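WARN retry 2 of 3 for item q-0093 after timeout on previous attempt; input resubmitted unchanged.
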Amino acid sequence: MPSQMRKLTLTADHVARVHKVVQDQGLTPGAELHTDADYDSWVKQMIRTHPAPKAPTRLFAYGSLIWKPEIEHIGEQLGAARGWHRAFCFRMTRFRGTPEQPGLMMALDRGGQCRGVLYDLPRDNLESQFGKLFRREFTYKPANSMPRWITVETASGAIPALTFVMNRASPLYAGRQSLEAVADVLARACGHWGTGAEYLLNTVSHLESKGIRDSNLWRLQRLVAERIEGNPTERNVL
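OK item q-0093 returned
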């Protein structure tokens, strides 16, 4: 853990400038939701393919699962997933964006490496835990954020862990974008769940509290703050 947390440029005040009341417009026409049977099938598949079924089950968290895990865990440690990196590559037309002003959410995309938190899950009711987790992480078909077993490097060695990775075949995959382009989106997008700026602030601040410093996200939060400050429309909301 860092002896002293760095001060972020992006603040709650910036988030408040972007936030507005947005009515949920519901499902996009033609969208198809996962059913209980679909989720049950995903759960069975991931348990069947568990690479170490006799070992504790770990969940690799790299974004919102760090500050809003929602499922019980009995231990945690830091780890690095090689071959994957955080990226705002998931286009959102609902939740933290609208069809008129789409947002971007973070996902785990191929390439690079990502430091995150490994949660140790209780051995009991793994099916129930996975079911709750999957319902949180993906809603529409095809699954945008797909469950996958990966290898995470820790101080005690390589450990298999469940995580969620971006489905590049999804129509909502936004591809690789510059930090400047992402900042332009996050400085404006807002849905009925809140803003992209709020999501970024929560993620960066909680990573910092864990001693995880992602240089791209640190630069991104500064760019988003600068854009909000330079946008007269957001300033006039205050």
